[in-house]
Structure formats: C-alpha cells, structure tokens
Specification:
Blueprint: H1 2-18, E1 37-42, H2 90-93, E2 99-101, E3 112-113, E4 117-122, E5 125-130, E6 137-146, E7 149-157, E8 165-172, E9 179-185, E10 189-196, E11 200-209, E12 221-228, E13 231-236, E14 239-245, E15 253-260, E16 268-278
Antiparallel strand pairs: 1-6, 2-16, 3-4, 4-5, 5-16, 6-15, 7-12, 7-16, 8-9, 8-15, 9-10, 10-11, 12-13, 13-14
Organism: Anaerolinea thermophila
Keywords: Signal
Protein name: 3-keto-disaccharide hydrolase domain-containing protein
Length: about 280
C-alpha cells in the first residue's frame, strides 16, 4: 500500500512539474474582397445657363380620297399586318441583355446611408433619397465594371420640382472620385458631365430641355447610355436624346447613381431595374 501510494505521489508530482499543455487556436483573418467603391459626398451646385430648345411641330396635311364605283364584288386575300419593331431602340436592336439586376431582394450592392442620402433596396426598388442639405451631391458606385456597352436603368421619381436632379454614373474609378454621369432634372432637362478629382464637375454637354419625353417623371422611364470608346449616345425610352464625346476616362469603370435636391427635401428616385448589353 505504501508503495502504491508512493507511485501515485510520484505521478502527481510529475504532472505538477511538467504542467498542463494548453493549445491556443489562431483565429484566421478573412480578406474581404468588395466591389463597392466608397461614397463621396460633395456640396457643389451646378450653375448653368439653359437655352430653350425649339421643337418643330408637324404641319397638318390632308389627302383627298376619290370615290369610285365598284360594279362587281371581288374577293381579295389580304395579309394581317404585323407590328414593326423599332430597331432604333438599343434594347430591341441588341437583343437579350448580357446582365440584369432587378432589385427584388432585400439588399443590393448600392445600399448606403448617411446624413445626406439614403440608398435602400426595398419593395422591388433601389430607393435613392436626397436629404438634409440642398445641392449636396451624393453617389455610390459598384459592379458591373463597363467600358464599351449599352447601359439602361428603369427609374421613376416622386413628386419633385425645378433643379432636383438624378444621375446614372459610368466608368467610375476605383476610388470613386472620377466618373461620367448623365444628369436629369425634375423640370425636364438633361446634361452629360465628368466628375474629376477634387470634386470638380466638368461640363461635357450642358443641361438642355428634353424634346421628346413625357413630363411625368412619376411614370417609369428607361434611361440609356451607349458607350463606345470616346463616343456616347443617350436615350430615354429608346429614343435618342443627344450625343457627346470625351476621351478622359477611356478604361472600364464602376456603375452607379447620383442624386441631389434643390427644391424638394427628401427627393426620391426609385430604380426598378439595371441592365447592360454587349455591343456588336
């Protein structure tokens, strides 16, 4: 018994001397790879002179229809007219889009919130709201990265007025400081601009009145940009509204949206769908 007790004591002593080995697990760090570019908030207003554009109305015309007698009844076979597609509409001309985002989930790559703006995905829309300070431009860009493509966003606006404005941004730099954008105002004007480093807005095409679009922005409208090298064409509902040329941002870049209010605090634009087509 003494010997066994001595053995137990020796074993206990060895454990105390050697100690208990505790293994520490190293928690791996995760490299987060994001495609989003940081939000840039600016407090710059666009001041431009907006010369009115003259819209030519078609002149009325009439054609006399001669009356002729038909003594006998003849049966002729006629073909049923088919609807002709408007191939001037890029969405029809280019066929199926290469990519579509419909905002039907509870979040999107463009979600963001600050004191000045809210970009929030809900109810099947990306809801973009400008708040707090007037003429404070807020934007957010993310994938897809595009260079030569036709990009189209389907949007609608809440009731607004005057120079309340919204933009679709393309070819944005990785830091989000440079990009092109088409600007649309609530009172029916459009322009094309380049955001430069240091929050400088370069005017490429000044704001001009839209000639051929409806005045009701509360209805859905398709806003399109055809980008091909240094050439740009702009569309609303498939109708070309103008062109521009600039070769400053020649590579591919991120895509996003811009908003600022002038007269309506809480001015909101809803984006229902974003698509792009590869060019032939």
């Amino acid at each position: 018994m003494k010997r066994s007790g001595l053995i137990c004591s020796l074993i206990l002593l060895l454990c105390l001397v050697s100690g208990c080995g505790i293994t520490k697990e190293t928690v791996p760090t995760e490299d987060v790879l994001g495609t989003q570019v940081s939000i840039i908030l600016t407090e710059t207003a666009l001041h431009s002179t907006f010369p009115p554009t003259e819209t030519l109305m078609p002149s009325p015309s009439s054609t006399a229809v001669p009356i002729t007698e038909t003594p006998t009844l003849t049966l002729t076979q006629t073909s049923i007219p088919t609807e002709t597609q408007d191939l001037s509409d890029p969405a029809i001309l280019l066929g199926s889009p290469a990519w579509t985002y419909d905002f039907n989930s509870t979040s999107s790559p463009w979600d963001f919130e600050s004191e000045q703006a809210l970009f929030e995905t809900s109810d099947g829309y990306l809801n973009i709201t400008s708040r707090l300070n007037p003429n404070w431009h807020s934007w957010w860009v993310s994938s897809p990265r595009l260079k030569d493509a036709y990009l189209e966003a389907r949007i609608e606006m809440d009731d607004c007025g005057g120079f309340d404005r919204f933009g679709v941004a393309v070819r944005a730099s990785t830091d989000g400081e440079q990009f092109y954008f088409i600007g649309l105002t609530c009172d029916g004007r459009w322009g094309f601009f380049r955001m430069a480093t240091g929050v400088e807005i370069i005017e490429i095409h000044p704001f001009n009145e839209l000639d051929t679009v409806t005045e009701d922005w509360t209805e859905p409208h398709r806003i399109g940009i055809w980008m091909e090298g240094s050439s740009f064409k702009f569309y609303i509902d498939g109708n070309e509204i103008g062109t521009a040329t600039d070769n400053t941002l020649s590579g591919e870049g991120y895509t996003g949206f811009l908003i600022a209010y002038s007269e309506t605090p809480g001015y909101t634009v809803r984006v229902d769908r974003l698509q792009y087509w590869d060019l032939p």
